[in-house]
Amino acid sequence: MCELFIKADAEQWQSRTHSLRIDGVATSIRIENHFWDTLTEIGARDGMTVAQLITRLWHEAVDADHDLGNFTSFLRVCCNRYHALIAAGDISANLSVPIAEHPAREILARCRVADHPYLARKGFPEEDGFVDTDGRLVVPMRDAQDYKRINSIQWIAEDGGKQFLYGGQARGSVFMRGTGSDTWLCEGYATGLSISAALGSMYRQARVVVCFSAHNVAHVAGLLSGRRFVVGDNDPNGVGARYAASTGLPWAIPPEVGMDANDLHQKHGVRALVDLMRPLMR
């Protein structure tokens, strides 16, 4: 069996260093040639240079709140996952087929509109959503600057487990609810529903923008205009508060650590959420 591996091209396990900039910050990455070749292949399929691909992976990892203390290990895992997904048939082996060419629209088209146990558990038993054939709730992730464009999909299971569509774009992707001159930004779908309920109880028309992560809240806030407010999550590590504050907009988080706006709504009623939001509008 060992001969299957020891006959590999020795050049493939030699390391080399590439220098690049991520968000204007100069850095260097040193990994084996095998992984550089794989990153080059992945990027080429979507019309990106290696530097552009690495920057995108960095942003998406930050949006997913991954610990990037060892970013080179993350890149190696991405490469191995790419090959595993090709072997499983989840990504085409045809290198001319872009990875970003994902079936988001097809997934949305096959869904039925119905109530869902997750929504009921979050306090919205009468709320309908898109439900996939496997029973999971589907939240379309649309482009914040071109809302007709679907960038990705978020699946939510009955127990609250979440999964994003592989190859989809999370950065700059949103789900919007309602209309009005004011905009309220938040992280999660259920959080957005609670914010909409609080606005309704105040007889205020506004747009609620679900951003799917704290980092993306900060990013999307800079893409939109008009009066904007942020309701962050009170994460134990302070991520929600930190990114909410970084927007420079009026912001608030629930008073209890580990709580989001939906938790506050369910535990203390919609009035408690109104009391949290109302001071931001003064």
Describe the structure.
It is globular and about 70 Å long. The chain has helices at 3-6, 33-45, 50-63, 71-88, 104-110, 117-121, 189-201, 214-221, 239-246, 261-268, 270-277, and strands at residues 15-22, 25-32, 112-114, 129-131, 137-143, 150-156, 162-164, 173-177, 182-186, 206-210, 227-231, 251-252. It is built from eleven helices and twelve strands. The longest helix is centred in the first third of the chain and has 18 residues, at 71-88. The N and C termini lie far apart (71 Å). The strands form two sheets. Strands 3, 4, 5, 6, 7, 8, 9, 10, 11 and 12 form a ten-stranded mixed sheet that branches. Strands 1-2 form a two-stranded antiparallel ribbon. Strand 1 and strand 2 (25-32) form a beta hairpin. It is α+β, with helices and mostly antiparallel strands and 282 residues long.
Q: What's the short story on this structure?
A:
The chain has 282 residues and is an alpha+beta fold. The chain contains eleven helices and twelve strands.
Descriptors:
38% helix; 282 residues; alpha+beta; 11 helices; two-stranded antiparallel sheet
Write the layout of secondary structure elements.
Blueprint: H1 3-6, E1 15-22, E2 25-32, H2 33-45, H3 50-63, H4 71-88, H5 104-110, E3 112-114, H6 117-121, E4 129-131, E5 137-143, E6 150-156, E7 162-164, E8 173-177, E9 182-186, H7 189-201, E10 206-210, H8 214-221, E11 227-231, H9 239-246, E12 251-252, H10 261-268, H11 270-277
Parallel strand pairs: 9-10, 9-11, 11-12
Antiparallel strand pairs: 1-2, 3-4, 4-5, 5-6, 5-8, 6-7, 8-10
Helix pairs in contact: 2-3, 2-4, 7-10, 7-11, 8-9, 10-11
